[in-house]
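New to this. Comment on this protein:
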Amino acid sequence: MHVPTVTLDQLPSELPSGLTVLDVREQVEWVHGHIDGAHHIPLSELGARLGDVPDDQLLVVCKIGGRSAQAVAWLSAQGHDAYNLDGGMIEWAEAGRPMVSETGRPPHVV
């Protein structure tokens, strides 16, 4: 199955309105650093929480792109307009894109 994928260089520095970032990493990864305004549903919970997935166009992220590719394949089959971020949060952070943390410390990818 083809998984719609975008690279970081295809995204503008400010994400367009109507695009929701869906982070499918585990809670421990999320708290250390994530994209501000992202919606968090761990991949392991996605099937049970389909009703929590926004109807917007989705940019799905994980650490490097593997879990998010699985999520995009499944979400696409459910009728969502979803795209995988190739390189995930690792490339996001390396590019200096803004992140926030829940730990009280500077955000980083774990």
Summary: Residues 66-77 form the longest helix (12 residues). The longest strand covers residues 19-23. The two ends are 29 Å apart (CA to CA). The chain has one domain: 5-13+22-94.
